[in-house]
Design a protein that fits this description.
By secondary structure, the protein is an alpha/beta fold. The chain has one domain: Metal-dependent hydrolases (TIM Barrel, Alpha-Beta Barrel). The chain contains 7 helices and 12 strands. The strands form 2 sheets. A 9-stranded mixed β-sheet has the order 8-7-5-4-3-2-1-9-10. A 3-stranded mixed β-sheet has the order 6-11-12, with no helix packed on it. The chain is globular and about 50 Å long. The mean pLDDT is 95. Bound molecules: zinc ion (2 copies). The site of one zinc ion has 6 residues, from loops.
Length: 262
């Protein structure tokens, strides 16, 4: 028996684009048989709902509302709710796991630091960083930007992506031996009716804490992907030609010159 966890989702309390409250999300995931969820609202480099002008303490307090709302409901209905966030650097975004509100309160430098410093700070704090949807192509994402050196793994399946984006990500992660995760990027649980519409990870053991998930990522434990394997078999010829860049050590773009799986 596997325990299902959502690893990527947004609430309307803390993400400007979120539609569901934490409570609404929690109820839907419990109904659909998930063991737990990780709330990953858009952090201050992304589409965060919290005014950037507030003092740090107040910003963190408001940022954690979506998670706290979900957690309150989760405790009532028996769904484990964990905390994380998604930081944005323009066209590349990172899911951060394993740190909490108390850590945020004492680390205001996380708000605007470089990708390299983010990874360093998160590791120092005992967390992990996963690059979200590395091959997503959207109007708001101009180029594929691969932050290989700035993460512990890659989200190879994202339900908000087109299938071919995930096929590319899967091949990329295989080639570079990256830890792979899957998530829904769910902003609106009212539109979800079946477990199959959600992506996530399927774990052999129940997480007692978010640090258990971090340990699976950092120690390359077994992380099952809750997604149909055909997700990684899209025909790349049917997709637009990719322009992709490495983010180098100076955090500048360097053309990969790669056609990936074409
Ligand atoms: Zn969003
Ligand atoms: Zn997201």
């Amino acid at each position: 028996m596997a325990y299902l966890y959502e690893t990527h989702m947004h609430t309307c309390l803390s993400s400007a684009c979120g539609k569901s409250t934490g409570k609404e999300h929690a109820r839907r995931y419990a109904d659909l048989g998930f063991a737990g969820i990780i709330i990953t609202d858009h952090f201050f480099g992304g589409n965060c709902a919290v005014p950037r002008s507030l003092p740090w303490q107040e910003k963190v307090k408001q940022f954690c509302r979506g998670y706290e709302d979900a957690r309150e409901e989760g405790e009532k209905i028996g769904l484990d709710v964990f905390f994380g966030w998604e930081q944005g650097y323009g066209d590349d975004e990172y899911l951060v796991y394993g740190l909490d509100k108390a850590w945020l309160l004492t680390h205001p430098e996380i708000e605007k630091c470089s990708r390299a410093r983010q990874l360093e700070l998160v590791h120092e704090g005992g967390g992990a960083v996963i690059q979200a949807h590395p091959f997503r192509m959207r109007d708001y994402m101009r180029y594929i930007r691969l932050g290989l050196r700035f993460c512990d793994g890659a989200e190879v399946a994202n339900a908000g992506n087109q299938q071919v984006n995930d096929t590319y990500a899967y091949h990329y992660a295989q080639e570079f031996h990256l830890v792979m995760t899957a998530g829904s990027d769910n902003h609106d649980s009212s539109r979800i009716n079946r477990q199959e519409e959600l992506f996530g990870v399927a774990l052999n053991e129940k997480l007692s804490d978010i640090s258990d998930y971090v340990a699976l990522i950092r120690n390359r434990g077994e992380i099952g992907l809750h997604v149909d394997p055909s997700r990684f078999e899209a025909d790349p010829v049917a997709s637009p030609v990719l322009t992709s860049y490495w983010i180098n050590a100076q955090e500048e773009l360097e053309a990969t010159g790669r056609t990936w799986i074409r």
